[in-house]
Amino acid sequence: MKKRSKDCAICNTAFDTMYRIQHKNPKTWVFVCKTCLVKVKKDNPLYTYGGTWKR
Ligand SMILES: [Zn+2]
Question: How far is the CA of 54 from the centre of ligand 1 (A)?
Fold first, then answer.
């Protein structure tokens, strides 16, 4: 099923603006919301920022 918005990979909530990041192994791209972005990037050597996605 296709949706117009993406769900955050961590809190499973849809937002209009999402952040494309890698934050764990294996390194795959996931979309997260700003709140989760701030949480996972803190002290995280695996964190990589890949861009912002807007609906
Ligand atoms: Zn989230």
Answer: 15
Q: What is the pTM of this model?
A: 0.85
* Residue range 2-54, pLDDT digits in tens: 556 789 999 999 999 999 999 999 999 999 999 999 999 999 999 999 999 99
Label residues 16-53 b or e (16+ Cβ within 10 Å = b): eebbbbbbeeeeeebbbbeebbeebbeeeeeeeeeeee
Quote the ligand 1 centre to 32 CA distance (angstroms): 5
CA of 52 to the centre of ligand 1 (A): 14
